[in-house]
Sequence to fold (262 residues):
Amino acid sequence: MQLPKLETVKLKVQESILEIVLSRPEVMNSFNDQMGKELLSALQLGKKENEIRTIIITGEGKAFCAGEDLKSLTQTQAPLGNILRNRYNPMITLMREIEKPIIAKVNGVAAGAGVSLAMASDFRIAAEHAKFIMAFIKVGLVPDSGAHWFLPKMIGMARAFEWMATGDTIDAKKALEWGIVNQVVPYEQLDETVLKWAKAFASGPTKAYGYIKRGLMKALDSNLHETLEYEAYLQELAGNTEDHKNAVNAFIEKREPTFQGN
Fold:
């Protein structure tokens, strides 16, 4: 696979895993227009390439992502709403549409849109020293990039308002208690732990993972009857995959299935 040469995002593919590294460490991997475009391009690559079956997103250096680069922001005359519509909204939407597991490897501070980026992922593993900052209110802004949609569903409306309105910093332990992350590990174990999960997802039934993502998104805005019917539809799709058929044969033959992602 030919990987594009990007300046603010680094890409690596191994064992069907695409690792996307935000690479503006001098500004804590905060977003400017270029990094937004390059991350979107990297995600599009992860979506279209069948060889890629799992995606990892992380940051270079000490931070995961500090959100918007405020210094860069002062150099543009674009309305903030347009920046969201053109940069962040397509990125978050694409992450939820990619029918492959996305793991956020939170290696350090996640602030502002960096928190939203982690929440838009399917699975979040954080280093023990990682911090999460809902920083928007500190500069007189409101949370964006899907924060109003993701956060109440994860931690409840009251707690979400409190965090958004105070802009407090929460540590990885509290993020785990609140259900924002799936796992917290010592920093020196972060790479190994994330890679273990990524390899497990990359060797699993990729289409079924994608249908799970579809089902969860649909269920968030559906009643029980609609959800039951959509589950039946997804189960029909899953039942027609080669991975399902091969897994049934493996079960009958009393051996472990090998999933090819189709």
